[in-house]
Amino acid sequence: GLLLLAAALGVTAAARCPAPCVCDNLRAHVLCLNGSLTAIPDTIPELTRELDLRGNSFTVIPAGAFLATPYLTHLDLQRCKVERLEEGAFRGLGRLVYLNLASNGIVLLYQESLDGLFSLQQLILEGNRIEEIQPGAFGHLGSLTVLDLRANALVYLPDMVFQGLQVLRWLRLSHNALHVLGSEAFAALPALRRLSLDHNELQALPGEALARLDGATWLDLGHNPITYVAEEALAMASLRHLFLDHASLQDVAPDAFARSPQLRILDLRENQLQGLPPLAGVGGLVRVTLDGNPLLCSCFLRPFHKWLARARVQAEGACAAPPTLRGRSLDSLKSLEMRCSRLRPPPSPTAPPEQSRAAGSRQCPQGCICSPDFHHGSCENRNLQEIPRDFPEDTRLLDLRRNPFRTVPPDAFPGLKELVSLHLQRCSIRVLHPGALRGLESLVYLYLTNNHLSTLAAAAFEGAPQLAYLDLDHNAFSHVPAGTFQLLPNLISLHLQHNTIRELAEGDLAGARGLRWLYLAGNAIRHIAPAALAPTKMLEKLQLEGNHLSEVPTAALWGLPALSELKLSRNPIKHMGDSVFLPVASSLQHLYLDNMGLEWISPHAFTGLGPKIRSLYLESNKMSNIPDMSNFTGLEILNLRDVPFHCDCQLLPLRRWINKLNLHVGATCGSPEEAKGLKVKLSPTFQTCPDWGQGKAGETNPNKTKVASKSSKRSGKSPAGG
What we know:
Layout: H1 2-16, E1 22-24, E2 29-31, E3 50-52, E4 60-61, E5 74-76, E6 84-85, E7 98-100, E8 108-109, E9 122-124, E10 132-133, E11 146-148, E12 156-157, E13 170-172, E14 180-181, E15 194-196, H2 207-210, E16 218-220, E17 228-229, E18 241-243, E19 251-252, E20 265-267, E21 287-289, E22 295-296, H3 302-311, E23 314-316, E24 319-321, E25 369-371, E26 376-378, E27 397-399, E28 407-408, E29 421-423, E30 431-432, E31 445-447, E32 469-471, E33 493-495, E34 503-504, E35 517-519, E36 527-528, E37 541-543, E38 565-567, E39 575-576, E40 590-592, E41 600-601, E42 615-617, E43 637-639, E44 644-646, H4 652-660, E45 668-671, H5 710-715
Parallel strand pairs: 2-3, 3-5, 4-6, 5-7, 7-9, 8-10, 9-11, 11-13, 12-14, 13-15, 15-16, 16-18, 17-19, 18-20, 20-21, 21-23, 22-24, 26-27, 27-29, 28-30, 29-31, 31-32, 32-33, 33-35, 34-36, 35-37, 37-38, 38-40, 39-41, 40-42, 42-43, 44-45
Antiparallel strand pairs: 1-2, 25-26
């Protein structure tokens, strides 16, 4: 009887196998390889565990595409011409542990694209066209250990972009075009051990972002155009293996790695190093690899050579000069052989290497360096009065920092059609003439930080229509340079912090219709006109900390449906009335209200806010109570330190709510006297309340929030109620 039943089951299963597929019902595998499927078949056996759909043509994975196969553990969608994942595409796949979406055409990862995959351990997105990841896209992947984003088109990583990946161990970002990393880009990755950032466009070591990864042991930054590693550039407490090979390194500071004391292996192969100083603070270092560097084994290398012996560090590499020592390995050299008698001191790394003069059709200007491999030009800190010309036409990055140019004349950069990134920081620039950037049709990044600009002509940016990242911070603007953004339809990020701007007026941002990030911290803004932000309908991040606002600029927040981060810290806002965040309540995720001297918050101040809010900063204020936040069920960070709560029976609901949150919030009592300084959680004053017995402490929240506040995360303590 059993045999008959099994046979019958086999027949029905075979009958349900979709036409171009092969179904192995014993192993619960289904293969539908390289077929002409244009939709996910709906007759795949329900009990299938592994589904291989490689090489089909789906274009879109619609919502609920796999609801008929809830037992899937492995799903392979490589080379399926997928361009879009609809929100909820994988809903119902709560058992899936492996998802491969490599070699498709996905451009954007939306917030709910990967919803429902709470058991997923490996996600492979290699070889797509992902340009942007919306913060929150990985928010539901609490079991993910490997995330592979190699070979995409990422240029920028915003803050908290990997939020939710609590157990991620390996993040692979190689072969992108990463140029800018938000300082908090890696802030939510407490378990990360391995990070691959090789083959990107990083020009400097992203030290601030990397400092968040205090558990990472393995970091690959090879094949990036990094020229210099500065003092204490890398603060990674657990780092053991660092790869900086095939970069453009010309110099490394003696204490560059002093804040990464566990470092064992340092790979500096194939750079432009003529030598290294003795390295400080790396007592555990075992090996430094210097093969493929033009090492000058003169007396200048002696301190490093002596340090190698003293610190018992093995060095791999060979001398390139002087001729008598060429080809000799470092470990075979004797101190006395490294002489300087007839040798000139080594040319400074900023002197042009001969071979690099011929890049492109033009020479390299006198006193500058042109690096043909990376299409870079640099004349940093050469005391130049005028902007040099005649850089190779294929130059993509031009670094002119720290030269006293004072003015940028019209047509200052002729022939540089391919230039992507232009650095003009600290150049004493007072005037950017109309047409100064004419002809820079590929320019994406323009850095004008720390100059003396107080005004900009409307035509200042004429001829650079691709400009997306504009840094004008630390200048002398007393108002936003209105009219200048009409010519910048692709502007994404605008830095105007630390100027002396007094107000945001209507029309100031006219034309900036694609703006996503607006940084205005550290100005003197007292007023924001209701229509000032109207042109920036795509704005996601608005940073207004450290200004002179005396109230929340509610009227100006209407019409910003994508705003997810609002920073109002360090503004003298003493009172907060009803519904002040209502205009952005449906999108806001991160709200900063700390250090304001806030004395009173209306019970209805947070009307409209709720489960969307991920982080709320209220520390260092003066109010004694806060509104009911029981519907803030998505909170991952809540900071209530240094707020003088009045711990009486009216505060009991807040105390209960804090206990339910699995968060370290730092709330303490400011009064009455017998509770002063005690944690709200521990204050004895609540025991006299009439409803004290109901819902005792220690209740657990069904939405157990996993992320601790920043302070507890950094100290490595486990999250605990305030």
